[in-house]
Structure formats: structure tokens, C-alpha cells
Design brief:
Elements: H1 4-24, H2 29-36, H3 40-51
């Protein structure tokens, strides 16, 4: 089995690489996954493990219009 030092170094390398590729693709995770040679779902799973689950975007708030009588 690998020592904890090796596992931590491997995780840090992987995290740095993933974040650099996401940055290079201007945050486009689909493109980043393609460039890394992994599925988009796998990439999202890694990001959720490292950064916690990402909440889905909220729809834009629309002002409520009063109905004409």
C-alpha cells in the first residue's frame, strides 16, 4: 500500500492539474473534462469531493407584475 505522503502528493498534483485546466478553459468543465481525457461526470465528482457539492444555478429573479383589472 502507498504511504500517506504519496497519496497526499498524488491528490495535490491531480487537484492542481484539474484546476489549471478548468482555468485554461475559462471555467468550461465539459471542455476541461475532454482535455483531461475523463468524463464530465467524473470531473464533477472530483470537484464535489474537493470543494463540496455545487448548488444548481438559481433562475433569474423576475419582478412580479400586478395584473390589470
Amino acid at each position: 500500500s502507498a504511504s500517506p505522503g504519496l497519496l497526499a502528493a498524488t491528490d495535490a498534483f491531480q487537484r492542481d492539474l484539474v484546476h489549471r485546466v478548468i482555468s485554461a478553459t475559462a471555467g468550461n468543465k465539459t471542455r476541461a473534462a475532454r482535455e483531461l481525457g475523463v468524463s464530465r461526470q467524473w470531473l464533477h465528482g472530483l470537484l464535489a469531493r474537493w470543494d463540496g457539492p455545487v448548488a444548481p444555478p438559481r433562475p433569474a429573479e423576475r419582478p412580479c407584475r400586478a395584473r390589470a383589472a
